[in-house]
Design a protein that fits this description.
alpha+beta; Arc Repressor Mutant, subunit A; two-stranded antiparallel sheet; 4 helices; 52% helix
């Protein structure tokens, strides 16, 4: 089993954590579009959520029917301990690489 996070999976997992117990396909899709100004389809978000669930990084349950969803209920996703560990590892790996870059390389004007 591949326990590494792809870039898009990492974004989706971060949003599951940020939306603490209120994360579902549409809410994550909207957040990606609004917060990152990135076009994304709901099917790609669902695919990532199901992959994350297979890896053990999120768990899901069916929420209550509410609003005008015509009786359909949302599948709510929550981050697991394994998902939290994967996010910490991804952040640490990125920070390690950022710290390898000499300061002058990223200065503007050079």
């Amino acid at each position: 089993m591949n326990n590494k996070l792809g870039e898009f999976e990492e974004i989706v997992l971060l949003l599951v954590a940020a939306q603490h117990e209120e994360a579902y396909g549409l809410s994550i899709t909207k957040a990606i579009e609004e917060e990152l100004q990135r076009a994304v389809t709901m099917s790609s978000v669902h695919t990532a959520l199901y992959r994350l669930e297979e890896k053990g990084f999120v768990e899901s349950h069916i929420g209550d029917a509410e609003g005008n969803r015509r009786g359909r209920r949302k599948r709510i996703f929550v981050i697991t301990a394994l998902g939290k560990k994967a996010l910490h590892e991804a952040r640490d790996a990125r920070n390690h690489i950022w710290n390898m870059i000499p300061k002058f390389v990223l200065e503007f004007g050079h």
